[in-house]
Amino acid sequence: MGMRTGNNGKAGMRVQTTPRGASRVAPPPARRRQWRMPRINWRLAGRLLFAMLAVVALGAGLQAWQVLWPQLDRPISQVLVESKLGEVAPQNQQQLQQELERFGEARFLSASLAAMQQALEQLPWVDQARISRVWPDQLKIEVVEQQPIARWGEQQWLNSRGQVFHGVTRAPGDTMPQLVGPEGTEEQVMQQYWSLTRILRPMGYSITRLELRARGSWFVHTREGLELLLGRDEILEKMRRFTTIYERELKEQMKQIARVDLRYANGLAVAWRDEDNNETTVQ
C-alpha cells in the first residue's frame, strides 16, 4: 500500500479542519404579527349595561313621581262612616270628625291612617276602628261600636271582655245587669258574672245585680227576687252545693224563699218571705 510521506518521513495525510468556536446558525426570517380583536366578557358587559339602564330608569321614575305626587296626594274631600250596627248617630259622627281634624289638612296618600285609627279607638263608644283609602280623594271609616253587656256602677258600662267604657250609641234595655266592685276588679267581676249565670240560668234565674264588696264578699240579686250571699271563698263550690240542695229540698219552695246564705262551711241558711225574715238552716 502506498503512502505519501513528508520531508520528515511521516506519512502524508490530507486533513480537513474547521475553525474553532461555536458555529453560527442564520435566524429564520421574521414573521409579521397579525392584529387580533381582544376577547370581550359579554357577561360583565351585560351586567354593566343593565346597571346603567336601571339607573336611567330609576332617575326617570323619580322625576315622574315628583311630577305626579301633587296630583295623586290630594286633600281629602269626604269621609265615609260605616258601622256594623247600622247608621252611626249624628253626635258620634261629629266626634269622629273632630278627632280627624286634629291631624290638620289630611291628604290622600300622606295621611297616617294608623295614627288616625288609634285616635278614633280612644273614643269611649268605639271598640275598634278601621280606616282605608277610597280613590281618588276619600277616606272610609268602619267602626265597631262598644257593646254593653252590663252596667258598671251607676254611669259606666262593661263590654264582654270586662272593659269599662263611658258612652253608648244606643240606650240598652232595662234587662241590663248591674255589676259593682272596687276599681280595677272589672274583669274579675265580669268573669264571675258569666260563671254564676251558667249555673243559675238553667234553674230559671237571671242576675240583675252582682256585687263584690271591698272585703271580698260576693252578693247576688236575681230578677225573680232571690238574694244569694256567697261569702269570699270557694264560690263555685258553694253554688254546686246550692244546686244540689235546691234539687233535693228547695225547688218546690223557692217562691217562698227571699234569701239563701251560703257563707257556711257545710250547708246553707234560708230566709223565708213574709215570716219576719225567719231563717232555716239546711245541711
TrEMBL record:
Transmembrane segments annotated in the record for this chain: none
Stretches the record annotates as Disordered: 1-31
InterPro entries per the UniProt record, alphabetical: Cell_div_FtsQ/DivIB_C, FtsQ, FtsQ_C_sf, PLipase_C_Pinositol-sp_Y, POTRA, POTRA_FtsQ_type
Main localization of the protein described in the UniProt heading: membrane
Membrane topology: Single-pass type II membrane protein
Compartments, as annotated in UniProt: Cell inner membrane; Membrane
MF terms in GO: phosphatidylinositol-4,5-bisphosphate phospholipase C activity
PROSITE patterns: PIPLC_Y_DOMAIN, POTRA
GO CC, any one term: plasma membrane
Any single Pfam family the record assigns to this protein: FtsQ_DivIB_C
Segments forming domain PI-PLC Y-box: 99-152
GO BP terms, alphabetized: cell septum assembly; FtsZ-dependent cytokinesis; intracellular signal transduction; lipid metabolic process
The entry's keywords: Cell cycle, Cell division, Cell inner membrane, Cell membrane, Membrane, Transmembrane, Transmembrane helix
Domain POTRA residue range list: 74-146
Complexes and interactors: Part of a complex composed of FtsB, FtsL and FtsQ.
Primary role: Essential cell division protein. May link together the upstream cell division proteins, which are predominantly cytoplasmic, with the downstream cell division proteins, which are predominantly periplasmic. May control correct divisome assembly.
Family designation: Belongs to the FtsQ/DivIB family. FtsQ subfamily.
HAMAP family: FtsQ_subfam
PANTHER family attached to this UniProt entry: CELL DIVISION PROTEIN FTSQ
Name listed for the protein in its UniProt record: Cell division protein FtsQ
Organism: Thiopseudomonas denitrificans
Lineage: Bacteria, Pseudomonadati, Pseudomonadota, Gammaproteobacteria, Pseudomonadales
